[in-house]
């Protein structure tokens, strides 16, 4: 099936700067793999643009351990008229992937467990363009951290410690034989 979400941005809202870094929309999808296609059209100039991507929606209730994707968010986000994800995450994610060293950006992952809660060690690594690890941190998520089967992990990106360049943030955890790994690419500028 196909789901469509339309957003309309008035010139007045754009002029006031209420868009921030992008528009946030929500699609409620059952578990599976999807093609995501987004298009934008400027009715005044006639310019259009499109982007295509794949989205995996995990079956969070199945398996001993699953995780959301990595959401990047700013500690002090730009003003947005509303957060359509407010009942899911307590922030507005950013689509930006290039950051200045002075910015306060965080990486968020929600982990899901089925069955009785168990402790889990989370490893967060930043890997540079040459494949070297330039940041490595382990955090213990105790069994008591998992409320109703979920635990949130929110890591400040170590931007001040990184030189300008391209990076991969890898967040991984395991319980027994179940291993979960999530990645996001980002760049540091200036």
Concise synopsis of the structure shown:
The chain has one helix at residues 11-15; strands at 32-41, 48-57, 65-67, 71-74, 98-100, 105-113, 120-128, 133-141, 150-156, 165-175, 178-189. The protein is mostly beta strands and 190 residues long. The mean pLDDT is 87.
The end-to-end distance, rounded to whole angstroms, is 44 Å
Main pleated sheet: 5 strands, mixed
Average pLDDT metric: 87
Q: What fraction of the residues are assigned to beta strands by DSSP?
A: over 45%
Rg calculated over all Cα atoms: 18 Å
Structural class: mainly beta
Low-pLDDT residue spans: none
Please give the count of helices: 1
How would you describe what is shown here?
With 190 residues, this protein is an all-beta fold. It has one helix at 11-15, and strands spanning 32-41, 48-57, 65-67, 71-74, 98-100, 105-113, 120-128, 133-141, 150-156, 165-175, 178-189. The strands form three sheets. It has a five-stranded mixed sheet with strand order 5-11-10-7-8, with no helix packed on it. The mean pLDDT is 87.
How do the strands and helices of this protein lay out in sequence?
Blueprint: H1 11-15, E1 32-41, E2 48-57, E3 65-67, E4 71-74, E5 98-100, E6 105-113, E7 120-128, E8 133-141, E9 150-156, E10 165-175, E11 178-189
Parallel strand pairs: 5-11
Antiparallel strand pairs: 1-2, 3-6, 4-6, 6-9, 7-8, 7-10, 10-11
């Amino acid at each position: 099936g196909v789901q469509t979400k339309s957003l309309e941005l008035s010139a007045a809202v754009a002029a006031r700067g209420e868009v921030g870094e992008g528009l946030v929309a929500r699609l409620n999808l059952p578990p599976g793999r999807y093609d995501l296609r987004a298009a934008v059209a400027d009715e005044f100039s006639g310019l259009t643009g499109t982007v295509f991507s794949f989205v995996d929606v995990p079956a969070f209730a199945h398996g001993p351990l699953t995780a959301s994707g990595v959401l990047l968010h700013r500690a002090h986000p730009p003003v947005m008229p509303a957060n359509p994800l407010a009942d899911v995450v307590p922030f507005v994610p950013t689509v930006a992937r290039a950051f200045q060293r002075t910015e306060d950006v965080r990486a968020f992952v929600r982990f899901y467990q089925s069955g009785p809660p168990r402790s889990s060690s989370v490893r967060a690594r930043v890997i540079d363009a040459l494949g070297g690890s330039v940041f490595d941190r382990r955090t213990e998520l105790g069994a008591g951290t998992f409320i109703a089967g979920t635990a949130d992990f929110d890591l400040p990106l170590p931007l001040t410690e990184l030189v300008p360049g391209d990076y991969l943030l890898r967040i991984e955890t395991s319980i027994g034989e179940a291993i979960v790994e999530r990645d996001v690419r980002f760049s540091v500028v200036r």
